[in-house]
Specification:
Blueprint: H1 2-21, H2 24-44, H3 50-71, H4 75-94, H5 96-108, H6 110-115, H7 123-131, H8 133-150, H9 158-185, H10 189-205, H11 218-226, H12 228-240, H13 246-274
Helix pairs in contact: 2-7, 3-4, 3-8, 4-8, 4-9, 4-12, 5-9, 5-10, 8-9, 9-10, 9-12, 9-13, 12-13
Length: 275
Amino acid sequence: MTTTTRTAAATPSRAGTAHAAGRPFGMARHSLALAGRSLIKTIRTPEQLLDVTLQPIVFVLIFVYLLGGAVAGSQHEYLQFLLPAIMVQTVLFASIATGVSLNTDVEKGVFDRFRSLPIARSVPLVGSVVGDLVRFVVSIVVLLGFGYALGFRIGTDPLSALAACLLTIAFAFAVSWIGVLLGVLMRSPGAVQGTAFLLLFPLTFGTNMMVPTDTLPGWLQWWVGVNPVADVMEAARGLMVGGPVAGPVTRSLLWTVAIIAVFAPLAVRAYRRRA
């Protein structure tokens, strides 16, 4: 009789806690807590940062010193043209880790433990995405530092360059929700990574990242014109070294909002269905 009374008394308290967790403030607090968990995982396994530190350096060295003389006639001029686009590509590739990490947690049963906690069901997803923002910042800092050592210089002003970095991070944040959706739907981390790369390669390399648009075949020029990644790269170039800004930035922001509006609800719905 005593046990029944205690259980009944505890039930409303737990329900009240869960209700409080569903409020915006509670969701934000819990999401930041799980984002901190993601950050701790990265600190304890720093090799996870190799793809956002070593990979962009390799890309810059290969493209600048193999293609710079042929495309721009000068490695320095080509570095100015290439580096803002490489920044966008690097951060987008870094967003793949969000879906891979999420899939690993789901397969290992970590999210089953989260489900038993008095938190909103979407909090683990939001926390995972927010936690990976650190990877985006690290990749940009490393790339810009290495580019500066090679001779890259900002041709506009520091605020414009910062705006380019923030725009790139915002777009990668949006794309990471696609990775979250893949992480929930796929059966293994390897499948998530393979599928994500299959989607990102035509989006990142099918741009004017390495050569001007007018040098491409007609059908590829059309693809560049409708490719959202090309808009972000063009916006980053304009903000960092000079060129068109208003149009590319506006289109990039619209793409960012549209991708979040479509894929964030789909990811949450798929997670609730699986978890």
